[in-house]
């Protein structure tokens, strides 16, 4: 009989602490100083909101907008991904479009498992950036893309991120194995979830990633 995947529970307090400690440990503000946050629906919602508040404090209250993208991954042989929500990027025809020129764009999700979703998000944003660059009537300042995840699973990746992101602007809270991470927004009984998170998440179960850029 196959063994069940181990569950690790993360409470709201632990989530907040992981994000805050990651900002400080990786020197995120000094190294990247985001100007635009993009939350991947729906796991990136709460981490993005917590991260925004922490970054605003680090950056002296500077405005830091959050945009949302929705992606749906169909688990099949082709592992196709479809957009369910995206950012308005047509500067010529859409008055609500966002200019990427000069932006430092931080894409946020709760977990990097197969890397398929993150890879797709970066690829599609790079296409939008290229279109804006080609049609820009003003001086163009090349934007920079970064990734922030609460957890990175140390499992084989199907997706690939650009080397410049992995080297300079990939920010990870904690490296974990293949365990099933249960986040607080997944809970039906939040009190029981918090109890499990407090009693079962031990320091030995999660290993802080080394910061190779220091």
Could you describe the 3D structure shown?
There is one protein chain. The protein is of the alpha/beta class and 214 residues long. It has a domain at 28-176: Rossmann fold. The protein has 6 helices and 8 strands, in the order βααβαβββαβαββα. It has helices at 12-25, 28-31, 45-58, 116-135, 163-168, 190-200, and strands at 7-9, 36-41, 66-73, 81-85, 104-112, 144-153, 170-176, 180-182. The strands form 2 sheets. It has a 6-stranded mixed sheet, with helices on both faces. Strands 1-8 form a two-stranded parallel ribbon. Strand 5 (104-112), helix 4 (116-135) and strand 6 form a beta-alpha-beta unit. Helix 1 (12-25) packs across helix 3. The protein is globular. It starts with 6 loop residues before the first strand and ends in a 14-residue tail after the last helix.
| Overall body shape | globular
Strand order of the largest sheet: 4-3-2-5-6-7
The proportion of strand residues reads: 15-25%
Which runs of at least 5 residues are low in confidence (pLDDT < 50)?
none
Order of helices and strands: EHHEHEEEHEHEEH
Helix content: 25-40%
The termini sit apart by: 45 Å
**Alpha-beta content class:** alpha/beta
Number of strands: 8
Largest β-sheet summary = 6 strands, mixed
- Count of helices? 6
Q: What Rg do the Cα atoms give?
A: 18 Å
| CATH class wording of the domain at 28-176 | Alpha Beta
CATH architecture level-2 label of the domain at 28-176: 3-Layer(aba) Sandwich
CATH fold group of the domain at 28-176: Rossmann fold
* Chain-averaged pLDDT: 92
Protein name: Phosphoribosyltransferase domain-containing protein
GO molecular function, one term: hypoxanthine phosphoribosyltransferase activity
Keywords: Glycosyltransferase, Transferase
Organism: Adineta ricciae (Rotifer)
């Amino acid at each position: 009989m196959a063994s069940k995947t181990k569950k690790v529970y993360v409470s709201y307090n632990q989530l907040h602490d992981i994000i805050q400690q990651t900002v400080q440990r990786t020197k995120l503000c000094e190294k990247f100083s985001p100007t635009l946050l993009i939350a991947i629906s729906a796991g990136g919602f709460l981490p993005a909101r917590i991260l925004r508040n922490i970054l605003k404090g680090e950056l002296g209250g500077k405005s830091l907008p959050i945009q949302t993208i929705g992606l749906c991954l169909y688990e099949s042989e082709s592992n196709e991904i479809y957009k369910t929500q995206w950012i308005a990027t047509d500067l010529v025809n859409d008055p609500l479009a966002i200019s990427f020129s000069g932006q430092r764009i931080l894409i946020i999700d709760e977990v990097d498992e197969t890397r398929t979703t993150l890879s797709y998000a970066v690829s599609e944003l790079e296409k939008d950036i290229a279109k804006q660059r080609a049609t820009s009537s003003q001086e163009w300042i090349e934007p920079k893309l970064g990734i922030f995840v609460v957890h990175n699973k140390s499992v084989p990746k199907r997706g690939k991120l650009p080397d410049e992101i992995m080297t300079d602007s990939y920010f990870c809270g904690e490296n974990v194995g293949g365990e099933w991470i249960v986040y607080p927004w997944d809970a039906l009984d939040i009190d029981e979830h918090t109890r499990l998170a407090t009693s079962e998440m031990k320091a030995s179960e999660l290993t802080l990633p080394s910061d190779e850029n220091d």
